[in-house]
């Protein structure tokens, strides 16, 4: 709405000159304020659209983008210190943001989603440490946090091995071979060696669009439990928007003319709605990366 309003700024100003009943035209100061507020709220819109995606994994996108929002709010408070209205608004936003997203002072943004970031071959521990360093403004504290995340990943991976969960894809004769790295020398009996090998391998280019679940599927033969751990973590949805949207049509399906439908028929109508309306996913339009446009906070290389 703010974007559209700014586009027609001149039109509103001219309308004020020819229509005497138009008495709520913004002055130059107010238009400038609208533009500043748009710049602050824009990233929230972008991140909401990104997290609401249903045709691509999103858990690996969580940590970096929430961190960017946090850094953005801090920067706005600092840069706009002379603007009392914008500064006070941003401070209140930051309080609510930290209260909602931060689990505690020592576990910002959640360990699970830190795992997801590490399991993105474009990020790994390198970018995680960069984020913590910017967040804490302390090299030692950032390194300690990264070490803690790595230790917890080793422990969780050990639990996966203890459960010895079978993998159909790894036992299948038609499984795709690992294509990115040489698996020779990896001790299949050591979870730590699998994780260490993955972390020591070169990171992929952060600018490429990557289906991380497909990446781990192709490398499952080499990484075993680590690949299955990645599958479970990366498939965690960040929002329930897609499922809630599906079931919100229930009221339109079960209306007063269809009130006697048995539950099975109602379920069939809801779940086959995409067929009835000829829904077709356009994969090219789906977002599969972390290249959200950010006008204020620069991303790490």
The count of helical stretches stands at: 17
> How many domains?
1
Task: Tell me about the largest β-sheet.
Answer: none
Cα separation of the termini? 33 Å
Number of strands: 0
Strand content: under 5%
- Strand pairing plus helix content: what structural class? mainly alpha
Mean pLDDT: 76
- Helix and strand element order: HHHHHHHHHHHHHHHHH
**Portion of residues in helices?**
55-70%
- Identify the overall geometry: flat
**Could you tell me the radius of gyration in angstroms?**
24 Å
Low-confidence blocks of residues: 167-182, 184-189, 279-292, 294-301
Describe the overall structure.
The chain has 17 helices and no strands. The protein is mostly helical and 301 residues long. The protein has one domain (52-285). The chain is flat and about 75 Å long. The model is unreliable at 167-182, 184-189, 279-292 and 294-301 (pLDDT under 50).
What is this structure's SSE topology?
Elements: H1 2-7, H2 9-18, H3 28-51, H4 59-79, H5 84-101, H6 111-118, H7 124-136, H8 139-163, H9 168-171, H10 191-200, H11 212-218, H12 220-223, H13 225-234, H14 241-247, H15 250-253, H16 263-271, H17 273-276
Helix pairs in contact: 3-4, 4-5, 4-6, 4-7, 7-8, 8-13, 11-13
List keywords for this structure.
mainly alpha, disordered C terminus, 301 residues
Quick structural overview:
The protein has 301 residues and is mainly alpha-helical. Helix content is 61%, strand content 0%.
């Amino acid at each position: 709405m703010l974007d559209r309003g700014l586009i027609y700024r001149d039109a509103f100003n001219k309308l004020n000159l020819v229509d005497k009943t138009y008495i709520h035209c913004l002055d130059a100061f107010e238009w400038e304020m609208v533009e500043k507020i748009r710049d602050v709220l824009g990233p929230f819109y972008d991140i909401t659209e990104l997290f609401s995606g249903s045709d691509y994994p999103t858990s690996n996108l969580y940590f970096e983008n929430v961190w960017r929002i946090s850094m953005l709010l801090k920067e706005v408070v600092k840069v706009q210190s002379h603007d009392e209205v914008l500064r006070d608004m941003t401070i209140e936003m930051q309080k609510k943001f930290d209260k909602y997203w931060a689990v505690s002072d020592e576990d910002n943004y959640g360990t699970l989603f830190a795992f997801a970031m590490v399991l993105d071959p474009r990020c790994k521990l390198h970018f995680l440490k960069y984020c913590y360093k910017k967040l804490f403004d302390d090299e030692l504290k950032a390194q300690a946090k990264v070490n803690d995340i790595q230790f917890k990943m080793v422990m969780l991976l050990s639990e996966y091995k203890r459960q010895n969960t079978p993998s159909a894809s790894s036992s299948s004769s038609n499984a795709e071979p690992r294509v990115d790295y040489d698996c020779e020398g990896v001790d299949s009996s050591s979870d730590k060696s699998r994780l260490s090998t993955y972390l020591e391998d070169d990171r992929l280019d952060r600018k490429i669009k990557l289906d991380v679940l497909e990446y781990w599927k192709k490398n499952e033969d080499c990484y075993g439990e680590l690949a299955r751990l990645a599958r479970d973590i990366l498939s965690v949805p960040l929002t329930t928007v897609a499922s809630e949207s599906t079931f919100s049509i229930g009221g339109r399906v079960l209306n007063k003319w269809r009130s006697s439908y048995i539950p099975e028929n109602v379920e069939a109508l809801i779940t086959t709605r995409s067929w009835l309306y000829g829904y077709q996913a356009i994969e090219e339009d789906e977002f599969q990366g972390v290249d959200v446009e950010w006008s204020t906070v620069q991303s790490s290389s």
